[in-house]
Write a structure and sequence with these properties.
Largest sheet: none
Helix content: over 70%
Radius of gyration: 13 Å
Shape: globular
Number of helices: 3
Structural class: mainly alpha
Number of strands: 0
Strand content: under 5%
């Protein structure tokens, strides 16, 4: 899996969240990817943990989506590392 495929996974999840949360939309600010593989893997791991915590604490139907995001980001971290 290349970095462009990882970025596409993130865009897909963001688009899904935006579609579900309208009219409250997600900011379109793009965050720069970390400069090296180690930093990118660490960012993916941190994002996975955050999404997993969100899936466990949300009281909405978004729990499944947050769980999918957590799993995806954990897989990204494993592939990059």
């Amino acid at each position: 899996m290349g970095y462009s495929e990882i970025a596409e996974d993130h865009r897909t999840h963001a688009a899904t969240l935006e579609r579900l949360l309208r009219p409250n939309s997600i900011s379109e600010d793009e965050v720069e990817a970390p400069a090296d593989a180690e930093a990118l893997a660490a960012a993916e791991t941190a994002g996975s943990v955050e999404a997993a915590e969100s899936s466990m604490t949300t009281q909405s139907d978004y729990a499944v989506l947050f769980g999918e995001i957590a799993a995806s980001r954990a897989a990204h971290a494993a592939v990059i590392a």
